[in-house]
Amino acid sequence: MATSVKISPSILACDFSKIGKEVEALEKAGADYIHVDVMDGHFVPNLTIGPDVIKKIRPFSKKIFDVHLMISPVDKYIEQFANAGADIITFHPEATPDSGETIKLIKKFNKKVGLSLKPKSEIEIIKKHLDKIDLILIMSVEPGFGGQKFMPEVLPKLKELKKIIDKEKYKIDLEIDGGINFQNSKTVKDAGANILVSGSTIFKENNGDLKKNINLLREK
């Protein structure tokens, strides 16, 4: 199981004064993806980076840029994020009037599509789109801030989605983000997650040894 697990470090936890170098260091340390949290201060109560910063850091890594849009409206910004260098664009169904149209728009720019579920979001709101997407991002904290505590109550949702994906033979990655650390990484993998997003643990544990922390999350 562990060999197929990918680690997507969240640059929300990096030192923004040297963000390009931090992205470069993550690639050298063996990160599979680079996770970019985009918040608008409207859909979620915080502001982070936009397409211009993504464009600036894109040359620092050849890894997949896994971009999580916590913004509303979504559609009018898809083209900017696609052109900035996003490889996967994930959005929240609650942030758009028509998830189907947003999915089509992302695909128009030849990007992979992710749908994200907040801790209280029901599986039902994404069920009819499962044959058209590449990734489901389960939030195990309320989106908006880094460094929050993992919410184990999302595990049944993760297990249920894994069952559906296996039964229908969908090619969908199950990603989890929020308070992922060395203590709960095995639990979320066992529940079906194959991409783990982690910020604080990767950047701060073991004196900031990125390679060690990425490997520990992957192997535990």
Keywords:
alpha/beta, 19% strand, 220 residues, 35% helix
SSE-based structural type:
alpha/beta
**Mean of residue pLDDT values:** 96
Q: Tell me the series of helices and strands, N- to C-terminal.
A: EHEHEHEHEHEHEHEHH
In terms of DSSP E residues, the strand content is: 15-25%
Number of helices: 9
The count of DSSP E runs of length 2 or more, i.e. the number of strands, is 8
Largest sheet: 8 strands, parallel
Q: Rg from C-alpha positions?
A: 16 Å
Spatial separation of the terminal alpha carbons: 11 Å
- Shape from CA axes? globular
Q: What are the low-pLDDT stretches, counting only 5+ consecutive residues below 50?
A: none
Helix content: 25-40%
Strand order of the largest sheet: 1-8-7-6-5-4-3-2
Topology summary:
Elements lengths: L5 E4 L9 H10 L4 E7 L11 H7 L6 E7 L4 H10 L3 E4 L7 H10 L3 E6 L6 H4 L7 E5 L15 H14 L4 E5 L7 H6 L4 E4 L1 H5 L5 H10 L1
Parallel strand pairs: 1-8, 2-3, 3-4, 4-5, 5-6, 6-7, 7-8
Helix pairs in contact: 2-3
Structure write-up:
There is one protein chain. With 220 residues, the chain is an alpha/beta fold. The protein is built from nine helices and eight strands. Strands 1-8-7-6-5-4-3-2 form an eight-stranded parallel β-sheet. β5, α5 (124-127) and β6 (135-139) form a beta-alpha-beta unit. The chain is globular and about 45 Å long. The termini are close together.
Produce a short descriptive summary.
This protein is 35% helix and 19% strand. It contains 9 helices and 8 strands.
